[in-house]
Amino acid sequence: MADEPTPITSAGSDGDEGGSGSSIDFGVIGGILMAFGAVIIGLLIEGSSPGRYVSPSAAIIVFGGTFGATMGSVGLERFKQMPGSFMRALTYQSMDRAFAINTLVTFAERARREGLLVLEDDLRKTEDEFLRKGVQLVVDGTDPELVKEILRTEIDSLHEERHAGAKVWALMGGYAPTLGIIGTVVGLVLVLSNIADPSSLAASIAVAFIATLYGVGSANLIFLPIGTKLEGCATDEVAGRELMIEGILAIQSGDNPRIVEEKLVSFLTTTDRAKFRAAQGAGSEDIDLDLAA
Description:
Blueprint (H helix, E strand, L loop, with lengths): L25 H20 L10 H19 L1 H5 L1 H10 L5 H18 L4 H5 L5 H11 L4 H50 L7 H8 L1 H43 L4 H9 L4 H13 L11
C-alpha cells in the first residue's frame, strides 16, 4: 500500500481559507502590480509625480469609510475573514482533475473486482476530505439518492461560504468610488469656503479630486479584481467537487471503470481532455494508482 496520502487537490481541499502550505499565485500579485505600474508610468509620461497624489485626509475618508461601510453591511465576523479570503485568492490552486479521474477510476476497478469494502483501506490514505466522506458513505451502504443529497448539500454550503467571502471584496469595490466622491465633495466645499484666495484655488481643487482617484483606483485595481478572483476560485472548486460526486456515484452503481472514466473526462475542458488522452496514449504519466499495490 502507498505510504503517502492521495493528493487529489493542490490547495484548499479541506476548506481552509488561507490554503496553508500552498504556493503563491504570482499572477494575482503581478497583475495588481502591473495595473498600478501602468498608472504610475502614465503619470510620469505626462510629467507628473506620484508624490503629488499623496493625501492622508483623502485616504482616511476613502479607505476608512469603505471599510466601515463594508463592516456595517456584512458584520464584524465576516469582515474579520477578509485576510483569510485574500490569502485564498493568492494561494488557491485548481484541483488536479487528471489525477482525480485516475484515482476514481482505480477505486472503481478495485470495487468492481474485490467489492466496495476493500476501499476502506484506501480511504485512510486519501487526503481529500470530500472524496473520503463520499466513498465512506458508499462503503457503508448508504442509499445512492441520500449519498447524492448529502454531497450536493455540502457543495451548496461550500459555494455559499466562498461566495460570501467574494462578496465582501465586491462590496468594497462598490463603496470605494462613492466614498471617493464624498471626499471630493468635502474638499470642494472647503475650497469654495476659501474662494477669496484665488491664487490657491486651482491647487485646492486638484487636491479635492484625489479622493475620487483613490476610490476609483482602489476599487478597480484591488477590490474588484480580488473579488472576481475569489468568485472564479469558488466556481472551479465546486466544479471539481461535482466531478467527484459523479465518480463516487458511478463507483456505487458498479459501472465499468472505462465508463467511469468516460463520464469523468466529460468534465474536462476540450484542451485538458486532449492532454489527458495524449498523456494516456503516450504513457507519459503514471496512471497506475492502485493504492494496494
